[in-house]
Design a protein that fits this description.
The chain is mainly beta. It is built from no helices and eleven strands.
Length: 119
Amino acid sequence: VQLVESGGGLVQPGGSLRLSCAASGFIFSNYDMSWYRQAPGKERELVARIRSAAGTTNYADSVKGRFTISRDNAKNTVYLQMNGLQPEDTAVYYCNTYRWSGVIRYNYWGQGTQVTVSS
């Protein structure tokens, strides 16, 4: 499994960024995909998830209405469109997928991409 994020950078408050995560090494369409983030001194938190089958989504309350997760199964890529960015969105953003083996969940992570929101 390989997950490679891109699209991070420095943006002013109120700006937008689109993150991409290119996946390989597994049957992408069969797996839920998620974006997490981790700010300095804080725990990693789930930002958004998109399910494999129906493509249903869920979001952290802090990003609802501003962020949109989507996937392109033909390109094995998941996206995170981030609008209305605020300084509190500053973090390293990680792409994630997982699989279950019995009761054990195996997580797979990308290397992360830095998002900095500052004037």
